[in-house]
Design a protein that fits this description.
The protein is of the alpha/beta class. It contains 7 helices and 12 strands. The protein folds into 2 domains: 75 residues, membrane protein fhac (Ubiquitin-like (UB roll), Roll); 151 residues, Rossmann fold, CATH 3.40.50. The strands form 2 sheets. A 9-stranded mixed sheet has the order 6-5-4-7-8-9-10-11-12. It has a 3-stranded mixed sheet with strand order 1-3-2, with helices on one face. Strand 5 and strand 6 form a beta hairpin.
């Protein structure tokens, strides 16, 4: 056997040994679930989540696709949110999970109500939201189309923008409903040329913050309206009436709402 052929055989043998060593070393032997303090799981629920994740024991740790794991779990368990999927070398995969917190209740075409979290993901569909604590009820807007738990609602642009700005202002989850328990969507009368749709953020104290749907950034205008509420309104003004932007581009308070 010549030296060149012998060298090739040795190189191939080394590669094969390395592959076997790597395969054995980085084979998944443990799948763990870490949860936040607001989520308690039974052993049976943990077993079900691990099964639904699609992660397989004895497969390579490098074969785990985080996006697919998140999709698998959240599709099967709409009330849960996967925070992250971690590889803990050499042989453990850890999935970090929390509860989705209900933030909004929006009417469906069927008359039922969709319960949405801060990402506008459908956590649940209920006949009544009366017994759900700390939730902001959206009135005057109906979600149409095919609805299923775990799906994302994409058509409510005003809610998406207001939620994003609310998070910057620390009005997230329960704090949102503590300040704004109700949102009224006033759809424009199409027979009136100059009328536009408005969003009324009805505060806990009674006054409504009014945002026109035709403004460039509804989230930013929510911030402006809140600043007016917090820094300038009297106790009486906070208890009734409306805060809105006039045609002169000035934020004002009024006991009635002008078109």
């Amino acid at each position: 056997m010549n030296k060149k052929l012998l060298g090739v055989i040795i190189a191939v043998a080394i590669i094969v040994v390395l592959i076997i060593v790597l395969w054995v070393t980085f084979t998944i032997r443990n799948i763990t679930l870490d949860t936040t303090s607001n989520l308690k799981l039974t052993d049976e629920e943990i077993k079900e989540l691990v099964n639904d994740s699609g992660i397989k024991l004895k497969s390579s740790i490098f074969s785990v696709d985080e996006k697919i794991v998140i999709q698998n779990i959240e599709k099967s368990h709409p009330s849960l949110k996967v925070i992250s999927v971690e590889r803990k070398f050499p042989n453990t995969v850890c999935v970090n999970i929390t509860n989705r917190t209900p933030v909004y209740s929006v009417e469906l075409a069927t008359g039922a109500r969709a319960i949405l979290d801060r990402e506008l993901k459908i956590v649940d569909v209920v006949e009544s939201d009366a017994e759900i604590d700390y939730i902001t009820r959206v009135n005057g807007y109906t979600i149409s189309g095919t609805i299923q738990k775990g799906g994302m609602v994409t058509g409510i642009s005003f809610l998406k923008e207001i939620t994003a700005e609310a998070e910057k202002m620390s009005f997230v989850n329960q704090r949102m409903s503590s300040f704004i328990p109700t949102i009224e969507y006033l759809k424009a009368d199409t027979s009136k040329e100059d009328e536009v749709s408005k969003i009324l953020l009805v505060t806990k104290t009674g006054v409504s913050l009014v945002i026109r749907e035709d403004v460039g950034s509804m989230g930013k205008y929510f911030n402006y309206a809140y600043t007016k509420y917090y820094t300038e309104l009297t106790e009486h003004q906070r208890s009734e009436g409306y805060v809105y932007l006039t045609e002169d581009n000035v934020w004002t308070w009024s006991p009635t709402l002008d078109n």
